[in-house]
Known about the structure:
This protein is mainly alpha-helical. The chain has helices at residues 3-23, 34-82.
Amino acid sequence: MSNQDDIISTLHTLYTLLDxxxxxxxxxxLSTTYHPTLEAAYAALGKVETEMDALRxxxxxxxxxxxxxxxxxxxxxxxxxxx
Length: 83
């Protein structure tokens, strides 16, 4: 499974777990699977957050590449017009 497939699956799992938590009445929270489900939801959220951080780093890198290309083009522009 690709990383994209894995993170999409994890997001689906997180939504499913949240739906399950919402369906448990507060009065029953201590006598059900609420706590393990809550822990599983936090684990899924952690995976999603880790992937989002990696995507943020990659996007910032791509932005830096764009800035560097623009700066190089601007640095060459005056030299070309002087010739």
